[in-house]
């Protein structure tokens, strides 16, 4: 255990030392829950090319691992250790018509868009040592999942309280955890179900900026709008069929995250 912590800390420090990440994560424990990240990784793994699979496997073997599913939760774990220098898992895009302005919303690359872009650049850098590349790979696997969670790109991240099935939780928690847990299936079974359903339908492609804008639009036009006038009440009560009603949006975002993660990894030029 102690050895693991030391390795994690050394990775983060190595990244900071090389100036790759200068972002301090200021959010709380906001993210798809661990299982959601594993589902995204499992979908991506199904879409890796032979070349992508080879270099990813080589990097993972440096830590005795064989699958990106095994490292999908790492970025949340290391953030919780509060080792100091961490990439952001969020970007707060305005909910009105203002365009994305990196100088305001991603100053000094301090947002998830900058973190993913810098991790990709790190993997494409032939001079970077293996340890730093492994850390960059683990950040990409995790953060491509987070950027597809609508409330991770919204100026309003939904940290207000709601009541769902008699339990008080934040609206953000509902979107991070409740959908995935409600399936009561294994990571690989959810990944297969989502991929079988959405494959061929889900628009892939785009850039980190367009992925974040998609998430913001979904947060604004569906998640937050759906709450409507209830927002003015003291406590929001979500209807019992809330998860079923919004599962298609979650399924689509998981598939898009998986396809785009695979595409990013397949496009890395490892030497
Ligand atoms: Zn996260």
UniProtKB/TrEMBL annotation:
The keyword Phosphoprotein does not apply. Keywords: Disulfide bond, Endonuclease, Glycoprotein, Hydrolase, Metal-binding, Nuclease. Pfam families: S1-P1_nuclease (PF02265). CDD domains: S1-P1_nuclease. This is S1/P1 nuclease.
